[in-house]
Design goal:
alpha+beta; about 160 residues; about 35% strand; Thiol Ester Dehydrase, Chain A; 4 helices
Length: about 160
């Protein structure tokens, strides 16, 4: 595992991952269009913003829970990948707790990498409505390294 060593390297990797999703990922991750607000190498955190789209809404006009769970998964996965030096990771489990409906137009997900091991990585995240600042959901997840897959090579 090649671990990220500096704030600059972390920012560069996060930007590379987001650009890859925008340009080369026609699937769900790319359609969500995550935006990096900030990241902190020392605290092992990132802040990822999402803008709600019509296709993500349920019949009540709030964000569908599955879309919200996917946003958590993508935000945590890309943050972990960046802290792991750009290595590809895969989700092993994800637990989301919904606190209140996602009615706002934009949401920030704050990700914290709790453990960056040789095999497993653990992260937690909090989603907040950017308009009100209120917490709307939390998540915790584990990821596994995919040592046999050169992720960064596919990003360039």
């Amino acid at each position: 595992m090649m671990e990220t060593k500096t704030q600059e390297q972390l920012e560069e990797l996060l930007n590379t991952i987001v650009e890859f999703m925008k340009q080369k990922d026609p699937g769900l991750s790319g359609m969500l269009e995550p935006e990096i607000v900030k990241c902190d190498f020392e605290k092992r955190t990132s802040l990822i913003r999402y803008r709600k789209k019509d296709w993500e809404k349920n019949h009540r006009g709030e964000m569908h829970g599955g879309a919200a769970a996917t946003m958590f998964d993508v935000a945590m996965g890309m943050t972990i990948s960046a802290f792991a030096g750009g290595e590809n990771v895969t989700t092993t489990d994800l637990h989301v707790s919904f606190i209140r409906p996602f009615f706002g137009d934009t949401f920030d997900i704050e990700v914290e990498v709790l453990h960056l091991g040789r095999t497993l990585i653990r992260a937690r995240a909090i989603a907040r409505d950017t308009g009100t600042g209120k917490e709307i959901a939390t998540a915790i997840a584990n990821y596994a390294h995919m040592h046999d897959y050169d992720y960064i090579a596919t990003l360039k």
